[in-house]
Specification:
Rossmann fold, 3 domains, 61% helix, binds guanosine-5'-diphosphate, binds magnesium ion
Length: 492
């Protein structure tokens, strides 16, 4: 997969390593070569250009990580930007927990729809679902038979009708009714394609969409067709509002352009990839793994990631020292929170603290992911003086902060108390043995500071909305509006 782009990217990036020292000029020169490699791989022109702009901006401004050669660091940047371009990871089919889920597959002729119907059916069956396939492609004489054979191989029911005297829409409606009767929980509709996007095809698919109201509309795209795949994805998305793309034939001699461009051009995520003709050759799409394959520099990428972790670990250690010396302020605390977000989880952070790594694994209840926004809001409403001297926050300051952050004065109190407990604990921990540290982590978890969402539960109970709640509520509203718009479009 991707031999061409991988080798040309590697030679572009190796130019950077030659000079020994990186200058802005040779960063730019190296990235121009990267851009050329992308265009040769049939990456969309605008995508390649913007991609290089982002990489250049990053590379020129970046702090050099100790223990890395600058050219290695550039590989890291290109990798990260490739991940951003193709990500985030989104391979959920959003199936209903109970009741019937409907998945509609569409795409050009020969893109792999019928095969992918079987692959998805097989995957769902393995997950314990009861799928059914519906043969709604009446365009190709052999399509129905092809789907039936696939169904037989997988022992999955297939609904079909003799093509004379029916329409694709009727087949879908009747297939859905049959599925409901048979207690099926996921119906997958195999629809017709054409050689090119045309209005007759779009009308047929839109009618099915409106009538059947699928939960997911997935476009099956042939990765070998490069930019054509991307252009057709754009056209299908304008007519149908796709939920995802399944990119097929990535096992073949593809140049990789479609995989790199499709998300950026259409905004629709790649959910699965087809990597072979056999029915088990379907994989969830992982942008980071794909970026790694495209770059073909797995070893350098992991080196960069390790160096970044080391940098974060250095920062943690620095903060740790401050904490143990009793000089850790709420401002530091917030910075640390930001770092945690960047790194993924508090669990990971704790693992970096010398002596705490193994202990985290024995405390699976610690869930620090929830709602750090609230703490952020509280600290944001404090003055610099208050952040550095939390013990000086009196009643009137407390009320002002609560008003500013949309929380209750009691919540400010609790945050400060927990924060002081934590600082105290950290100071004590400096001289502790392993057992005591374990106990200390347990206490810390019990205090609620490691679970900021829980500790501010009283805000929710009070029924008043703070800015953080407001933001969440606004987002929910926005999503609801978007959903109803989609619904209306479908009902047209
Ligand atoms: N190598 C490879 N071939 C595939 C893949 N998916 C489908 N195909 C092949 O592509 C051809 C067209 O597939 P088909 O499912 O009939 O396409 P449809 O016209 O969209 O229904 C068939 O020969 C499939 O075996 C894949 O992921 N890799
Ligand atoms: Mg087909």
């Amino acid at each position: 997969m991707f031999e061409g782009i991988t080798s040309s990217l590697q030679s572009a990036l190796s130019v950077l390593g030659r000079g020994g020292k990186l200058t802005e000029a040779n960063i730019r020169e190296g990235l121009v070569q990267v851009r050329k490699a992308l265009l040769e791989a049939d990456v969309h022109y605008d995508v390649a250009t913007k991609f290089i702009e982002r990489c250049t901006e990053q590379a020129v401004g970046e702090k050099v990580l100790k223990s890395l050669r600058p050219d290695q660091q550039i590989v890291g940047i290109v990798h990260q930007e490739l991940c951003n371009l193709m990500g985030p990871t989104d391979h959920s089919l959003h199936l209903r927990r109970d009741g019937l889920s409907k998945i509609m597959l569409c795409g050009l002729q020969g893109s792999g729809k019928t095969t992918t119907c079987g692959k998805l059916g097989r995957m769902l069956k393995e997950q314990g679902r009861r799928p059914m396939l519906v043969a709604a492609d009446l365009q190709r004489p052999a399509a129905i038979e092809q789907l039936k054979v696939i169904g037989q191989q997988l022992d999955i029911p297939v609904y079909s009708e003799p093509p004379a005297g029916t329409t694709p829409l009727k087949v879908c409606v009747n297939g859905l009714a049959a599925a409901k009767q048979a207690g099926i929980d996921v119906v997958i509709f195999d629809t017709a394609g054409r050689l090119h996007v045309d209005s007759a095809l779009m009308t047929e698919l839109t009618q099915i969409d409106v009538k059947i109201q699928p939960d997911q509309i997935l476009l099956v795209c042939d990765a070998m067709t490069g930019q054509d795949a991307v252009n057709s994805a754009k056209a299908f998305n304008e007519a149908l509002e796709l939920d995802g793309v399944i990119l097929t034939k990535l096992d073949g001699d593809t140049r990789g352009g479609a995989a790199i461009s499709v998300k950026e051009v259409t905004g629709v995520p790649i959910k699965f990839i087809g990597v072979g003709e056999q029915l088990d050759r379907l994989e969830p799409f992982h942008p980071d793994r794909m970026a790694g394959r495209i770059l073909g520099m797995g070893d350098v990428v992991s080196l960069v990631e390790r160096a970044q972790r080391e940098m974060d670990a250095d920062e943690v250690e620095r903060q740790q020292k401050k904490m143990m010396a009793g000089k850790f302020s709420l401002e530091d605390f917030r910075n640390q929170m930001k770092m945690i977000r960047r790194m993924g989880s508090l669990r990971d952070l704790m693992k970096m603290i010398p002596g705490l790594g193994g202990l985290m694994d024995s405390n699976p209840d610690i869930d620090a992911e929830s709602d750090m926004n609230r703490i952020d809001a509280i600290i944001s409403s404090m003055t610099k003086f208050e952040r550095n001297n939390p013990d000086r926050i009196d009643r009137s300051r407390r009320h002002r902060i609560a008003r500013g952050s949309g929380t209750q004065p009691a919540d400010i109190n609790r945050l400060i108390k927990d924060f002081q407990n934590m600082s105290g604990m950290m100071q004590k921990m400096a001289g502790m043995g392993a057992m005591d540290k374990m106990r200390a982590v347990k206490d810390l978890a019990g205090s609620g500071l490691l679970n900021p969402g829980a500790q501010l539960a009283s805000v929710k109970k009070s029924g008043k909305m703070g800015p953080a709640d407001q933001r969440l509520a606004d987002e929910k509203k926005k999503k609801a509006r978007k959903d109803s718009k989609k619904q209306k479009k479908r009902n047209r």
